[in-house]
Amino acid sequence: MIISASRRTDIPAFYAAWFMNRVRAGFCTAPNPFNRNQVSRISLAPHDVDVIVFWTRNPRPLLASLDELDARGYRYYFQYTILDNPRQLDARTPPVEAAIETFRTLSARIGSERVIWRYDPIVLSSLTDAEFHQKRYAWIAAQLQGYTTCSVISILDIYRKAERRLHALAAHGVTIPDQTPEQITGFDELMCNLVETATRCGMEIVSCAEEIDLAGYGVHPGKCIDDDLIERIFGLRLELKKDPGQRDACGCVLSRDIGMYDSCLFGCQYCYATSSFARAAENHAAHDPLSPSLIG
Question: Rounded to a whole number, what is the largest CA-CA distance in the chain?
């Protein structure tokens, strides 16, 4: 079994203590996000967990626990998002310099193949046009050269949870057009530039659940929960099917997610996992690190 920790919230950044308590207990519980009365008990015992995949913008609170995870026999890797968007879009993410420093520290600790850089999603807006992303991607890639072997990108999908927030930005002068190649000035140049930059910095560049066909630019579909990567870095061959609970364009194999929606505090305007920043703050305030479930 692969544990996803988590697509729904940033467990390393905000719930590291809870996660380690559940590791020591050997299990956690996770309510069905669409039916809170349906609660699953998920084993976290080392013999039941093949790999843990962490999704984060700030793994620093978890770094001190990596020795314990290693000693208990867990295998894990990180999907680590570093963007450099204006605060109008990413209100509370760590400053990019701090994020890069943490990325390097983590990579030096566990190896460059186990820390995957996500420049994802690419939000094309009046504040962050194609030229903006070319420059910021190139600068971050240069800082991460040698510290990762893979970069993941995707173009923003506007989810219903975020649609109202994104439309409200227009009142502050931030416009977000349809995120399609036809509507984005310089889209072709942007894609070619990202591929050239990643290649120069020794990174494979892949897409995440992207419905736009980017293969012609040299960006092929990737898998964030990746059985091929797991076999390569851990020598563990897992016979797993595509996760039926994910979007059609998602290539991830089956995993169990232990997070909960509406519990991340980073306040990214485009976030698909947070319908209300106020509710997320309330849930975080009610969080009990000793509870079997992340919230409740």
Answer: 53
Considering only CA atoms, which of 282, 265, 216 is closest in space to residue 58?
Answer: 265
Tens digit of each residue's pLDDT (9 = 90 or more) over 262-290 = 999 999 999 999 999 999 999 999 999 99
Spacing of C-alpha 182 from chain mean position: 27
- Buried b / exposed e along 74-98 (16+ C-beta atoms within 10 A): bbbbbbbbbbbbeeebbeebbebee
Provide CB contacts within 8 A for 12, sequence distance 6+. 5, 19, 54, 56, 58, 59, 60, 61, 62, 78
Instruction: Determine contact, residues 151/199, Cβ cutoff 8 Å.
Output: no
Contact 50, 277 (CB under 8 A): no
H runs (alpha helix) in 151-267: 160-168, 187-200, 227-234
Residue 183 CA to residue 215 CA, distance in Å, equals 19
For 218: left if phi > 0, alpha if psi spans -120 to 50, otherwise beta; the answer is: left
Tokens 């930005």, located at residue: 169
Residue 174 Cα to chain centre, angstroms: 24
Instruction: Give, as one character, the DSSP assignment of residue 170.
Output: G
Rounded Cα gap, residues 141 and 119, in angstroms: 10
Contact indicator for 220, 207 with CB cutoff of 8 Å? yes
Token pair in block for residue 103: 């990325």
The reported pTM is 0.96
Answer for the pair 120, 86: CB distance below 8 angstroms, yes or no.
Answer: no
Complete DSSP assignment for 227-243: HHHHHHHH-------B-
pLDDT digits over 7-41, tens only?
999 999 999 999 999 999 999 999 988 887 889 99
